[in-house]
Amino acid sequence: GAGVSQSPRYKVAKRGQDVALRCDPISGHVSLFWYQQALGQGPEFLTYFQNEAQLDKSGLPSDRFFAERPEGSVSTLKIQRTQQEDSAVYLCASSVTGPTTQETQYFGPGTRLLVL
Amino acid sequence: GENVEQHPSTLSVQEGDSAVIKCTYSDSASNYFPWYKQELGKRPQLIIDIRSNVGEKKDQRIAVTLNKTAKHFSLHITETQPEDSAVYFCAAVEYGNKLVFGAGTILRVKS
After folding, report:
1. A45 vs B100: CB contact, 8 Å cut-off?
2. Model confidence over A44-85: pLDDT tens digits?
3. Is the minimum CB–CB distance between B22 and chain A shorter than 8 Å?
4. Rounded distance, CA A12 to CA A10, Å?
5. Which of B:56-95 have CB within 8 Å of A?
6. What does the pLDDT read at residue A97?
7. How remote is the C-alpha of B98 from its chain's centroid?
8. Cα–Cα distance for residue pair A25/A74, rounded to 1 Å
9. How many Å lie between the alpha carbon of B73 and the closest alpha carbon of chain A?
């Protein structure tokens, strides 16, 4: 079946612009995660959804970052007034169930964001 | 919160040799430890995982060992092949299924 998909794959933004990154998880997956991966580093947690509920947003670096999953499937990560330090790959992952079991997280290909 | 350290940062081996990557974690409550392989420009892909009630797990040429007392776990790849060249990340799970990753190991298999 189809895996996790993300769009766009690449995004170039001018400093100060707003961007929206989309994630389509595997159909039926309850949990959805966003991670930020800087060049040469491991992914870092941003936020977590169980269905439409955002249960953890402790990793969002500032109030310029906002994520939503209104119908419990597709999710959007929005970054307002982008800064150069926001340049990174943004990875989305989904897993079958909720947080009570340790389930495999399946990653999307990522959106590479470059802020000029 | 959880902190995961991974070493070495780079590892070069000759084709056919074994490769070992080690990770330590800080939170004794963590109980799930996946390993991901990421090729350049590609998504991280799970290659093996281990839960804290198990000390070792094998899948063909790949094995993972876990020492809960010492809070460290290791990835072992035997009979390495050029296609094993990639960046490998270890991770530990905090509450809520949140993955905390190590910084990664660049593995180069020379043919």
Report:
1. yes
2. 999 999 999 999 999 999 999 999 999 999 999 999 999 999
3. no
4. 7
5. 89, 91, 93, 95
6. 81
7. 17
8. 7
9. 17
pLDDT at B29: 87
- Residues A60/A44, Cβ–Cβ less than 8 Å: no
What average pLDDT score do residues B30-41 get? 94
Pick from B43, B49, B104: CB nearest A104? B49
Query: What average pLDDT does this structure show over B66-95?
Result: 95
Amino acid letter, residue B45: Q
Tokens of B14: 């000759």
Q: What is the mean pLDDT of chain B?
A: 94
Nearest to B94 by CA among A45, A34, A36: A45
B43, B51, B97: residue with CB nearest A95: B97
Rounded to the nearest 5 degrees, what angle is found at the Cα of A62, between the Cα atoms of A61 and A63? 145
Work out the number of other CB atoms within 10 angstroms of the CB of residue B94: 20
Measured between CB atoms, does B29 come within 8 Å of chain A? no
